[in-house]
Write a structure and sequence with these properties.
142 residues, alpha+beta, Ribosomal Protein L22, Chain A, 3-stranded antiparallel beta sheet, 3 strands
C-alpha cells in the first residue's frame, strides 16, 4: 500500500530541498522525522511536514487496524522546481540588480514495503478492474 502527499509552492530552491530529501529517502518514517527534526537546514521543516502528511494519508486510507506508522517507509521523494518570483534591488549609479526568489514542489510517497502489482500499460494501479501483467513464463506458454 502506498500513500502520497504533495506540497506546492514551498519557499526555497529545489536544489537545497533535494539535498535534504536525498538523505531521508528509503528510511523508516519515524527515523526520517527524528532525523529531520534535528537537522540544521531550513528545508528540513517543510519536508518533515510533508512526510507527516503522507503518513496520515496512509493511515487514513489503510486504517490504523491494518497499518502502523512504524511500519511505513519513505519510498520516494521527488522535488521539482516551481515558479521564480523576481524582485529588484536598487544599487549605485541608478542600476538595479535582480533577486530571484525560488519556489519548489515536493512529492512524498510512503509505503508499507509490500510489492505493488504491475498492471498493463495504460491501466491505473489502483483500478480494481485492471488485469495484472502476465509474467514472462506465462507469455511464453501462449
Amino acid at each position: 500500500m502506498e500513500a502520497v502527499a504533495r506540497a506546492r509552492y514551498l519557499r526555497g530552491s529545489a536544489r537545497k530541498m533535494r539535498q535534504v530529501a536525498g538523505l531521508v529517502k528509503g528510511m523508516p518514517v519515524r527515523t526520517a522525522e527524528q532525523y529531520l527534526r534535528h537537522m540544521p537546514k531550513a528545508a528540513a521543516a517543510p519536508l518533515a511536514k510533508v512526510i507527516k502528511s503522507a503518513t496520515a494519508n496512509a493511515l487514513a486510507v489503510g486504517g490504523t487496524g491494518h497499518h502502523k506508522a512504524d511500519e511505513l517507509v519513505v519510498a520516494d521523494v521527488r522535488v521539482d522546481g516551481g515558479p521564480i518570483a523576481r524582485r529588484f534591488r536598487a544599487v549605485g549609479m541608478g542600476r538595479a540588480y535582480r533577486i530571484r526568489k525560488r519556489y519548489c514542489h515536493v512529492h512524498v510517497t510512503v509505503s508499507d514495503g509490500a510489492p505493488v502489482a504491475k498492471t498493463k500499460k495504460g491501466a491505473v494501479k489502483g483500478d480494481p478492474t485492471a488485469q495484472p501483467e502476465p509474467s514472462p513464463e506465462e507469455s511464453a506458454e501462449e
